[in-house]
Amino acid sequence: MQPRSKITENILDNPEILLGIAALLVLIVGAYGQSVQNVVAGLIMGVSAVFSYKRVEYPLLKAVFSFFTIAAVLGFLFFIGSIETIGKGGGNVWTTWVMFVAAFLSLFAAYRTFVLRRYL
User: How much is the pTM?
Assistant: First the structure.
């Protein structure tokens, strides 16, 4: 039996990875649709994930880019936006579903952060 990597072994204990994946998805959709709002939101999510992953030690920036707040608020906004687009039947199909998945990843990262009692 081969040993598993640390990332796959502890992915639920590191919600920063989930938010980082969600940020990449949002950046891809924002770049494809030429949406400045989605690109900025993806960058904010990515910066928050990097600062929270203990790679950068700047307490002020960690406070500004609060992991729990950014994951919960942007996940909720993307979820509502995806539901609205699906309900209208408009928009590009794959970008809507990618944003839907990114919203769930972001909300799950916020949930895991709350369960682990980190960054509150």
Answer: 0.84
In a domain, 7, yes or no: no
Q: Which residues contact 47 (CB under 8 A, 6 or more apart)?
A: 65
Whether 107 maps to a domain, the answer reads: yes
Phi-psi category of residue 89: left, alpha or beta, with phi > 0 → left and psi -120 to 50 → alpha = left
The pLDDT of residue 119 is: 61
Cα gap 44→3, rounded to integer Å = 34
Q: Would 8 be classed as within a structural domain?
A: no
Q: How far is CA 40 from the centre of its chain?
A: 12
* Total structural domains within the chain: 1
Helix, strand, coil share of the chain (percent; to 5): 80, 0, 20
Contact between 102 and 26 under an 8 Å Cβ cutoff? The reply is: yes
Q: pLDDT digit string (tens) for 22-31?
A: 999 999 999 9
